[in-house]
Amino acid sequence: GVKRPLLEQSAAWHRQEKRLGGLAPDARRHLASLVAARSRSRATTQPAPAFSGKGEDSSDGPSDPPPQPVVRRRLHPGDRLLREWNGRNHIVEVVEGGFIFDDKKWKSLSAIARRITGAHWSGPRFFGL
What we know:
The chain is an alpha+beta fold. 40% of the residues lie in helices and 16% in strands. It has helices at residues 4-20, 25-45, 109-117, 123-126, and strands at residues 80-85, 88-95, 98-101, 104-106. It is globular, with a radius of gyration of 20 Å.
């Protein structure tokens, strides 16, 4: 069955999606294009797998191609980033030349993530970019 932490994360994501409106239309289009490109790539480069009676881990054929690098979304002045951490929502506004967080201008998302968590984080990773 599905583990409880995954169910809790899923429920939290759906609550946040309802409250904040989910993915931006450009993010949805980008994800759809990645899925379509991946599907086209797999359809033209790999034959349909035949049932061998073996487990999914065993394979006599070619392995899946390595995952494509993730293209990060460009941030524009006026964009807002939201991250929930330890039960508190943290909102960062993108401005020309940096970010506004807690009424202070910051040069990097990593510095903001460090301020929020008290630990070293990749700022883009912390904010899901």
